[in-house]
Structure formats: structure tokens, C-alpha cells
């Protein structure tokens, strides 16, 4: 697909945003940027270094010491995220990080820091990025915006299966509470709250297979790419 575009995918936690974004990037030969992983990496740094994220000066000082990059992993056919030259792809998925990431991501200075990096990565088009404010804030002019939703019970089971693989002691109630808390914080925060952009396409994948949703989104990409080529 010669005429590359920006695909912005937003939605609540455990709606499958990262899954479809990764599949789409591979299928299209686009770069995949996991914005959520960026906020998780920042949260991990704060936790490791005892940063009080309610203290403005501490937050600003910490951000000055954070460098985040994505390195393509040939074996996994996906990008690993590096925090100050350390591969933190696994540590950022810890439950402790999951419990704090929404609070950290709600901080104005943190969002300004992350959004600037995300916009820089999108300068050359040909990217798929998922998050909570990609279509509304990071790339308001993205050619294709998708807002994903799924039934809450489906989301809880998806996240439980994902976390159980690395933490067999996790309970469904813990996962449900975590998702409900993150939904509330993400939707009500002052800085870039989670919301569907007016021109975003709604995708409810509660009962869709990964293959079905991928083919549907591929069709949307083709339509937008052709339309963009005619401008």
C-alpha cells in the first residue's frame, strides 16, 4: 500500500487495541507505536525511583532523566520498549504498574512529554498507534481513527487471561477492580480524557474473532488510503 496514512486506535483497557494495532502494522508494513507502553515505562521509572508523582518538581526532574525508545524484535516480529537502554517489555506489565499507570498518565507534564514523542514518531506517516487520546489529541488529523469498545465482562476475562500467564495468583475480582478504576480515571481526568473523536469509527469487538476485526479494519485502511491519494 504505497500511500501510507496514520491509523489512530483508541478505547478502554482490554478492548484489544494493542492486538489489532500490532496485527495491522505487520499486515501493512507500518510501524507500531504502543503509547500505553510509554506511560507504563514512565510509571515503572517513577516506582523504581520513588518519585512522588503528586510533586511537580519531582515529576519534571524525573522526566528529564527518562529516554524511551522502540526497537524491532526480529524473532517476535514486534517492537520491544526500552527505558534508558533497558528492555522493560515484561516489567511494565506487572500489576503494580497497572495499578498506578492511570494516575501517572493523568499528570499534565507526563502527557506533554509523551505526546511530543508520539507526534515526532508519526512525522513520516505509515504508523499505527493505540492509546486513549491518539485520535483526539496526538493525531487529530489522522486519516483513520477507530474507537474500540467491548462488553465489560469480556474485557475482564481478556485481561485476566493475559495477567494469569505471568501472575497465577491474580484473581478475577482484582482484575475487575483494576479495570473499573482505570476506566473512571481515564474518562474523568482533566488532561486529555478518554473520549471518542467525532470522526472516529466505532468498533465493538465483543463477539468478533481477531481475524474478523483485522479484515474489517484492513478494509477501512484501504478506503482511507485511496481517498487520501486523491487529495
Note down, in words, how this protein is organized.
By secondary structure, this protein is an alpha/beta fold. It contains nine helices and eight strands. It has one domain (7-223): Rossmann fold. It has helices spanning 17-28, 35-48, 56-63, 95-105, 108-121, 134-138, 152-164, 172-188, 210-229; strands at 6-11, 31-34, 68-73, 78-83, 86-87, 127-131, 144-149, 201-204. The longest helix has 20 residues, at 210-229. The relative contact order is 0.22. The mean pLDDT is 92.
For this entry, give a set of tags:
9 helices, single chain, 231 residues
CATH domain topology:
Rossmann fold
Q: pLDDT below 50 for ≥5 consecutive residues: which ranges?
A: none
Residue share in β-strands: 15-25%
Coarse morphology: globular
Q: What would you say the CATH architecture is?
A: 3-Layer(aba) Sandwich
What is the H-and-E element order?
EHEHHEEEHHEHEHHEH
* Helix percentage range: 40-55%
CATH class: Alpha Beta
Side by side, the strands of the main sheet go 2-6-1-7-8
Reported for the largest beta sheet, the result is:
5 strands, parallel
Amino acid at each position: 500500500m504505497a500511500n501510507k496514512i496514520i491509523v489512530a486506535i483508541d478505547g478502554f483497557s482490554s478492548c484489544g487495541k494493542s492486538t489489532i494495532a500490532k496485527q495491522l502494522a505487520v499486515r501493512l508494513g507500518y510501524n507500531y507505536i504502543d503509547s500505553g507502553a510509554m506511560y507504563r515505562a514512565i510509571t515503572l521509572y517513577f516506582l523504581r525511583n520513588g518519585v512522588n508523582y503528586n510533586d511537580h518538581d519531582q515529576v519534571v526532574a524525573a522526566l528529564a532523566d527518562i529516554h524511551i525508545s522502540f526497537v524491532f524484535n526480529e524473532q517476535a516480529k514486534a517492537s520491544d520498549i526500552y527505558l534508558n537502554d533497558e528492555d522493560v517489555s515484561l516489567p511494565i506489565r506487572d500489576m503494580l504498574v497497572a495499578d498506578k499507570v492511570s494516575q501517572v498518565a493523568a499528570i499534565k507534564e507526563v502527557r506533554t512529554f509523551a505526546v511530543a514523542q508520539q507526534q515526532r514518531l508519526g512525522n513520516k506517516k505509515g504508523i499505527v498507534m493505540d492509546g486513549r487520546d491518539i485520535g483526539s489529541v496526538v493525531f487529530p488529523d489522522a486519516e483513520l481513527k477507530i474507537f474500540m469498545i467491548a462488553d465489560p465482562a469480556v474485557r475482564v476475562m481478556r485481561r485476566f487471561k493475559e495477567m494469569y500467564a505471568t501472575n497465577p495468583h491474580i484473581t478475577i475480582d482484582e482484575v475487575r477492580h483494576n479495570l473499573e478504576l482505570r476506566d473512571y480515571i481515564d474518562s474523568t481526568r482533566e488532561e486529555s480524557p478518554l473520549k471518542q473523536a467525532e470522526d472516529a469509527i466505532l468498533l465493538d469487538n465483543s463477539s468478533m474473532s481477531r481475524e474478523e476485526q483485522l479484515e474489517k479494519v484492513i478494509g477501512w485502511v484501504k478506503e482511507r488510503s485511496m481517498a487520501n491519494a486523491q487529495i
